[in-house]
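Task card 7
Instruction: Convert sequence to structure tokens.
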Amino acid sequence: MSTLAYEIVDVFTDRPFAGNPLAVVFGAEGLATEQMQSLALEFNLSETVFVLPATRADATYRARIFTPVSELPFAGHPSVGAAVTAARRGLFEPGRVSQECGAGVLPVEVTATGATLTGGMPTLGPELDVEPLLEVTGLTPVDHAGPAPRVAGCGLEFPFLPVRPDAVARARVDPAAAQRYGVEHVSVFSWDPAAQTAHARVFVPGLGVPEDPATGSAALGLGVWLVASGLLPGDGRSAYTVRQGVEIHRPSLLSCTVTAAGGSALGATVTGEVVPVARGEIAVPPFVG
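Output:
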């Protein structure tokens, strides 16, 4: 029976059994998409990443990222976890590398303990009606606090719903409401302006992930939203922090920056540590063609 090497790592944490668990699979360049999807379902983590040879001359390696039910063009914790794990396995030296993925070629700065990921081109949508998002997250109009929700992203977009600090822990995703409104994922957060810190929860009912413990792509998009909403400066580089996963006993810390000019975000980064937890071999699923 053919097998593939894999590692399980915890991302955006400095200790095992916290942060966001990730399966990193190596040697899968001969597999079809359906076989990769089967492996992601078998691991049944929020995401599984396959580290593959690059197909572009300007990339160090290629990453394909899967939830249990579908492939993503980009995601934060798989990008950080893949870069650090591949460097530890000797595929390349720590330092500045380039990851090829569905969102393009993105820079990653790898250290011995973690990595800093630069997101893709910032995007920002119009203001959203708050009531559907409140219904999806089991909250009420009095829980909404701050500017209007909007969709924002740096390679993967999220609707951002700002709420009162006490409402974050009370949020509960309603899958039926999410399906009715076509909401695949949503970030619910409170913002502490003094500490420049968000307490966030990210629900992903449309992709087989009820709640994500740490979401690097959402942390990047949050910086775009914060600048657009006037909660971070519209010029220069600002640092902010995202704390996530506490409610599901996977505390996570995401350290971020956003660079802006003229009131618009130009780019964002997210930094996190990566802790190894397990390694082994997994069988190659049969090809169904």
